[in-house]
Amino acid sequence: MDQTFTRIAGRIAYWAGQPITFVLAASLIVVWAICGPLFHYSDTWQLVVNTSTTIITFLMVFLIQNSQNRDGAAMQAKLDELLRAVEKAREQFIGIEHLTDGQIEKIRKVLEDECEGQPNDGGRSTAPHTSMKNLLSRL
């Protein structure tokens, strides 16, 4: 079920992001608007576009969220691998995406404070790495 949904969601998201899809959607709205006088701008005429766009928007929200969740998880995995592979990287940062927003913001602030006043040496700083425990204790 997961693979089927992922495959279908990926294809729909791909096609939804194509220029031809935008042109098609805009064309449908133009056709709907042109039909207004034919239907005397009735409630049914308005209901057709309102219902259609609401249903499409409702379904697309879930597809977009699924796509963003997969992209975010893949990006985190790639970043975690880089942290693990780079010799001077702080491996304590692996998995910080599971912390609260407040904790992450505090870590970011501490890291910015650490960087203030240090010369830009292309990432070869000799400043000691702060452990995650030390980072959190300074918050």
From TrEMBL:
InterPro entries: Iron_permease_Fet4
UniProt name for this protein: Low affinity iron permease family protein
Record-linked Pfam families: Iron_permease
Transmembrane parts of this sequence: 12-39, 45-64
Region annotated Disordered, chain positions: 115-139
GO biological process, one term: transmembrane transport
Biased composition (Polar residues): 127-139
UniProt keyword annotations, A-Z: Membrane, Transmembrane, Transmembrane helix
Organism: Sphingomonas chungangi
